[in-house]
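Issue 218. Parser rejects a valid record. Input:
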Amino acid sequence: MTAGTYPTWNDETHCSRRFAPSSGPTRPRARNAVDELTSRARTLYRRLLKQYPDATCELDYETPFQLAVATVLSAQCTDKRVNMVTPVLFARYPDAEALADALIGDVEEIIKSTGFFRNKAKSITGLAMAVVARHEGTLPSTMAELFELPGVGRKTANVILGNAFSTNEGVVVDTHVGRLSNRLGLTKQTDPVKVEQALIALFPREHWTMLAHLLIWHGRRTCAARKPKCAECVVADLCPSAVEFR
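Output the parser choked on:
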């Protein structure tokens, strides 16, 4: 979940925004365009699933709380780097109770290489304290309860719910999902909340978590920000942007 050319967003300030319903009936021509887009989107999904059948969250964790911590650390940082840090962090602070009692300086030292370590240390220790105080040390499993925790907004909550609890409440929109959604012509929106709304409208609920995994994996392995490998892409013929990079 690294920052790239796609605009970053403040997860906390977006968490309370609501998805607006579509306005008015759809005209025949517009409806045909929507049907064509939906059909293309489903084809994209099938091909990417065939290409990456094992796509999953690439953050290492053993419990929902550890996933929440790893997700916070992944902001403006690669999953690979986070996975180098969390074994040490979780060995010393394996659960919310342990992390809530940690000295902030010790946490900062462990997570330093993830960047923005002072803010992240405050976020994850604050998260731990809230989980202990409000939920007896167990991370909650609903969107509403997750939103009440410090530092947890819609993107982080979607990561937790989809991966730790197998609950499809939304689509994770990180830098890769945002970039590929635009390149593949799934939406022209750049705001992550609106990108998520567009993807939710195109794909069945049961696909939402895997959809994010597929787009992230494709973004990391093929559709890079600066030099996408269009010649190797399994969906190049469906991508309106492919001609720009060939």
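Fixed in the parser; the record now loads. The CA atoms of residues 60 and 83 lie 6 Å apart.
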